[in-house]
TrEMBL record:
Protein's UniProt name: Acetylornithine aminotransferase
The protein's required cofactors: pyridoxal 5'-phosphate
Record GO biological process: L-arginine biosynthetic process
EC annotation from Swiss-Prot or TrEMBL: 2.6.1.11
InterPro entries: Ac/SucOrn_transaminase_bac, AcOrn/SuccOrn_fam, Aminotrans_3, Aminotrans_3_PPA_site, Class-III_PLP-dep_AT, PyrdxlP-dep_Trfase, PyrdxlP-dep_Trfase_major, PyrdxlP-dep_Trfase_small
Organism field: Chitinimonas taiwanensis DSM 18899
Length: 403
């Protein structure tokens, strides 16, 4: 029988590694969500850039229910049709020639970092194992990925970290030149730092990273967990920059809310993951791959990708109007529908206050660190929902400033 549960139950039965909001969403449709009390919210958070097509999108519901009536799981000792169809579509649409499926962005990055080291050691010997990442980066919560991530607050307190990881400032070519060497197996970059503040890379920086990797025989890994599958306005953000990585990781929007991750790479690199070297019990799950295929079919069209760019402009113009009126933001930055409103000096450290105030006004937003309010809505959100949500957000800002 169904039990009645409330937010108070979280504090009684869940491990306290999260501090969720004081309401529980129970139903969603498009860009709108309703909680247990029937209160409506406009969703500009997208499940942290996950709900690429909003809530209960008909194409995703259809794909999931049709696959659920066929086969759910077969293990990786077999393959399945949805996984093969999805892999073929990702290969056809990107630089990649091979795909590895898993369940999350962290798992995709774990696979990428392991493969980069395996390739480097196989090709150049045991001394070529170093990984260079950037400060304020975020690559997942496994011990390896959290070590590669450049935010010590997530890796401190767990004992000795995996070795061979260096961190340098983001968008700093000189720092990379000083750090990279013939011992470098890979350089890992987010084309837009998501958790680090919605900070896009400079084109010249990524071009220089590519050249330095080539010069030193290192692989270039793009973490596109947050920027991928249309979020940037292209299918993947590397396409926006014209800089092609050797390995790319994808998750979040790929499943539109159903857990899935993917690592994309070339045949030359992929062959170093021979049978038994890496795996994932649920990786390539038929349900997840069927949903992800439907996401790709919807998102990877000229109309939807062009729409993302137009919606970006709509968000930015309205956020700039709030900034001009109130002075709360010093900058609005980002790419596509991953947008960060940077708090002015007088409001630094208060991003969570803005997120809380927004929820009280009926709009869901995110933070990207303590100083940036982040917006990552559905890629197909209606213009009317953008306008209504921004009106609610403007009201939240006014209410917060009046206190």
């Amino acid at each position: 029988m169904n039990q009645t549960v409330t937010r108070a139950d979280f504090d009684q039965v869940m491990v306290p590694n999260y501090a969720p909001a004081d309401y529980i969403p129970v139903r969603g449709e498009g860009a709108r969500v309703w909680d247990q009390a029937g209160r409506e919210y406009i969703d500009f958070a997208g499940g942290i850039a996950v709900n690429a097509l909003g809530h209960a999108h008909p194409a995703l519901v259809k794909a999931l229910t049709e696959q659920a009536s066929k086969i759910w799981h077969v293990s990786n000792s077999l393959t399945n049709e949805p996984a093969l169809r999805l892999a073929k579509k990702l290969v056809a649409a990107t630089f990649a020639e091979r795909v590895f499926f898993c369940n999350s962005g962290a798992e995709a990055n774990e696979a990428a970092f392991k493969l980069a080291r395996k390739y480097a050691i196989d090709v150049a010997g045991s001394e070529k194992y170093e990984i260079i990442s950037t400060t304020n980066s975020f690559h997942g919560r496994t011990f390896f990925t959290v070590t590669v991530g450049g935010q010590p607050k997530y890796s401190d307190g767990f004992g000795p970290r995996p070795q061979g990881v260096k961190h340098i400032p983001y968008n700093d070519v000189a720092a990379l030149k000083a750090a990279i060497s013939d011992k470098t197996a890979a350089v890992v970059v987010e084309p837009v730092q998501g958790e680090g503040g919605v900070l896009p890379a400079d084109k010249a920086y990524l071009e220089a990273v590519r050249a330095l990797c080539d010069q030193h025989g290192a692989l270039l890994v793009f973490d596109e967990v947050q920027t991928g599958v249309g979020r940037s306005g292209s299918l993947y953000a590397y396409m926006e920059y014209g800089v092609t990585p050797d390995i790319l990781t994808s998750a979040k929007s790929l499943g539109g809310g159903f857990p899935i991750g993917a690592m994309l790479t070339t045949e030359k690199i992929a062959k170093h993951f021979g049978v038994g070297t890496h795996g994932s019990t649920y990786g390539g799950n038929p349900l997840a791959c069927a949903v992800a295929e439907a996401v790709i079919d919807v998102v990877n069209t000229p109309e939807v990708l062009a729409g993302i760019r137009a919606k970006h402009a709509r968000f930015v113009s309205q956020l700039n109007a709030i900034a001009a009126k109130t002075g709360v933001f010093s900058e609005v930055r980002g790419m596509g529908l991953l947008i960060g409103a940077v708090l002015a000096d007088a409001y630094k450290g208060r991003a969570k206050d803005f997120m809380t105030a927004a929820a009280k006004a009926g709009v869901m937003v995110l933070q990207a660190g303590p100083d940036v309010v982040r917006f990552a809505p559905s890629l197909v959100i209606a213009d009317a929902d953008i306008d209504e949500g921004m009106a609610r957000f403007a009201q939240a800002v006014d209410t917060l400033l009046a206190k």
